[in-house]
Amino acid sequence: QVQLVESGGGLVQAGGSLRLSCAASGILSSYAMGWFRQAPGKEREFVAVIVRNWGTFRTYYGDFVKGRFTISRDNAKNTVFLQMNSLKPEDTAVYYCVADPAITIGSMAAADEYNYWGQGTQVTVSS
Description:
0% of the residues lie in helices and 53% in strands. The protein is built from no helices and 11 strands. The strands form 2 sheets. Strands 2, 4, 5, 6, 9, 10 and 11 form a 7-stranded mixed beta sheet that branches. Strand 7 and strand 8 (79-84) form a beta hairpin. The protein is globular and about 40 Å long.
């Protein structure tokens, strides 16, 4: 019954910005939610996650982000966002929304940590 639906992908020039959205249904606001990406011929790569620890939502990012991306969520709407700035051609990939009732912080970057996946939205950055 859990559904994750991504939107906001598209074609953008290098240096531009995109804001991805993921609308979730059938989950609780306590679920961890995040983003992975997969470029052609490459493994799925951790992008970002937002998790609740002791009542506070905390964010974590893949090392490649270098301050360019920001994850946030609207708990009332069960929606998570990924604001992407200063995009580079190497950011080109399908971006997937993910969710899980509980994750281990030490393995948050592992794709198999997450039970629920969206179908993905394409991001293409041209030079």
